[in-house]
Design a protein that fits this description.
Number of helices of chain A: 17
Strand order of the largest sheet of chain B: 1-6
Radius of gyration of chain B: 13 Å
CATH superfamily of the largest domain in chain A: FAD/NAD(P)-binding domain
Radius of gyration of chain A: 23 Å
Helix content of chain A: 25-40%
Number of helices of chain B: 3
Shape of chain B: globular
Helix content of chain B: 10-25%
Distance between the termini of chain A: 52 Å
Number of domains of chain A: 3
Distance between the termini of chain B: 23 Å
Strand content of chain B: 15-25%
CATH topology of the largest domain in chain A: FAD/NAD(P)-binding domain
Oligomer: heterodimer
CATH class of the largest domain in chain A: Alpha Beta
Number of strands of chain A: 19
Shape of chain A: elongated
Number of strands of chain B: 6
Strand content of chain A: 25-35%
Chain lengths: 427, 93
């Protein structure tokens, strides 16, 4: 049987980025994808930032099938009885080049796969990889559909659970502490209705983040992204939080969020067209897995390369960049004819020198700090009560503004806030 | 939320029939605490507890999300992705 230069497992962003780069560099590359088509098994919340990977994939800005450029950013503190909204928009978000776009993966991944194929990558769908072939500890191919497929290098891009890197002995199964579950509904809505409800013009889009009651005060949040003719509405919550807490059921959390009066009005008249869920890595720097071994590289979610930066979990740019660097490392190794771990270690070096590892180091302590933060529980309620009393006018004489604030922010409360702020310095 | 409502949501998705179970509860672990948590946290509601306190699993509608694998671990669940050409096929994702 023929031997490939590189076998990529998984046609997600990391895998397709690797295949596109490898094929462009003249390598013979086979991508194995278990879905019916690239994207068939892939889920995102819904937003990708383009600037970090612009140099590697300049065609993204030119003709990628993104949904809408994000020009309005909103944060809502959802308290039990009330909500506080903060919205940010302005010329810098409106002007091209836009920094982020809403995205639906099934559509995008198919397009990206076509780009890789047009450069000569071979993509085999409907094919699950069952095992890794190892000889004297060196990975030299995979078993799929009963066939042995051999390559100089295997790049594991098989997602957050990465069965392939487990089978290659590079990682242990993931732990609840480092992972969250994302649940999402895609709700179809007329584009004009979307524009009216979110104060948008033309094809511009909005992103909203919801904190507080959406996760019943637990570590996590809700999101809403406008797509071309739908919205992506979902909830992300840490799995450890879910395990600890007897009262919360995950499908119910999504349904309650959808029925929240703040949300209901935004999706009124829309029809859910898909219900999706996926685990995501969010442990950051300390839960990055082994990135390479003899004959194998690991990229994207498979390597734990997603990070909670406080207001969002970012993964897609890291998947694209790590796929790119894994491909570069494989090409360099091919030039030397040396596919040992020592030779492939250049992958780690390239990641270290890029925004990828720099971001992971910068946000190293963020997951730990915010997972314990009162931002999900106490602060939405506190802020809500303050605003309630500031805005309230009843039959008694009105209390002075400062007196209202002092009543809510007594010495005990202020002391707690100061302690929280001391923690915030770490993120 | 009710099981019927959740079934209706899952009914919106495209699923190709599974040829064989890709997740199995290991023998003797049916009453594990983590497994009981899976009843609550599986986004597709595929786990249920019977009157004997044992957890059972019905795989139709599996979103292949991995929540149960992370929550329960390999000692409780024998877990693999479904074979190619089967399982959920997202049209939006």
């Amino acid at each position: 049987m023929d031997k490939f230069d590189v076998i990529v497992v998984g046609a997600g962003l990391a895998g397709l980025a690797a295949a596109y780069t490898l094929a462009g560099g003249g390598a013979e590359v086979l991508v194995l994808e278990r879905g019916d088509y690239p994207g068939a098994k892939n889920v995102t919340g819904g937003r990708i930032y383009v600037n970090p990977v612009q140099a590697f994939f300049p065609m993204l800005r030119v003709n990628a099938p993104f949904e809408r450029p994000i020009v309005r950013e909103g944060i809502t503190l959802l308290a039990r009885e009330r909500a506080l909204n903060l919205e940010y928009h302005g010329g810098e978000l409106e002007r091209e080049p836009h920094q982020s776009f809403s995205i639906l993966r099934s559509r995008f991944d198919r397009w990206f796969a076509e780009q890789a194929e047009s450069r000569g990558a071979m993509i085999l769908s409907k094919t699950r990889v069952d095992d890794v072939i190892r000889e004297k500890g060196v990975v030299c191919g995979v078993v799929a559909g009963g066939d042995e497929l051999r390559a100089d290098v295997v790049i594991a891009c098989d997602g957050v659970l990465s069965v392939v890197s487990e089978k290659a002995g590079l990682r242990q199964p993931g732990k609840p502490r480092d992972h969250a579950i994302g649940i999402k509904e895609v709700i179809s809505l007329d584009p004009d209705v979307i524009n009216d409800r979110f104060s948008l013009r033309g094809n511009s889009g909005a992103a909203r983040l919801y904190v507080g009651e959406v996760t019943k005060g637990r570590f996590g949040g809700g999101f809403l992204y406008t797509n071309s003719d739908s919205v992506s509405l979902g909830v992300v919550i840490g799995i450890e939080e879910l395990l600890k807490n007897g009262g919360i059921d995950a499908p119910g959390l999504m349904e309650d969020f959808k029925r929240n009066s703040e949300i209901e009005i935004l999706i009124k008249g829309g029809n859910t067209v898909e219900y999706a869920a996926h685990v995501l890595p969010e442990g950051g720097f300390d839960s990055i897995t082994t990135l390479f071994g003899d004959g194998i590289l690991v990229a994207g979610d498979a390597a734990g390369l997603a990070i909670n930066i406080g207001f969002t979990v970012r993964g897609m740019e890291y998947a694209l960049a790590s796929g790119y660097f894994a491909a570069r490392a494989a090409i360099i190794a091919k030039g030397k004819g040396d596919f040992s771990a020592g030779s492939l270690a250049v992958y780690r070096k390239m990641l270290e020198e890029s925004f990828v590892m720099k971001d992971f180091r910068t946000f190293r302590h963020t997951p730990g700090v915010i997972s314990k933060s009162r931002i999900f529980s106490d602060y939405p309620e506190l802020a809500g009560r303050i605003f309630r009393d500031i805005y309230s006018v009843d039959d008694r004489p009105k209390e002075a503004l400062f007196a209202t604030l002092r009543r809510h922010l007594g010495p005990g409360e202020l002391w707690t806030i100061l302690k929280d702020l001391a923690e915030v310095r770490k993120i | 939320m009710s099981a019927a409502d959740l079934k209706a949501k899952l009914g919106l998705n495209v699923f190709k029939p599974l040829r064989e179970p890709h997740i199995r509860i290991r023998a003797g672990r049916e009453k594990d605490k983590e497994l009981k948590a899976a009843v609550r946290i599986c986004p597709a509601g595929l786990y249920s507890e019977n009157e004997k306190g044992e957890v059972t699993l019905a795989l139709d509608g599996c979103l292949e999300c991995g929540t149960c694998r992370i929550a329960c671990g390999p000692d409780i669940l024998e877990w693999d992705y479904p074979a190619g050409d089967t399982g959920v096929q997202y049209r939006f994702g």
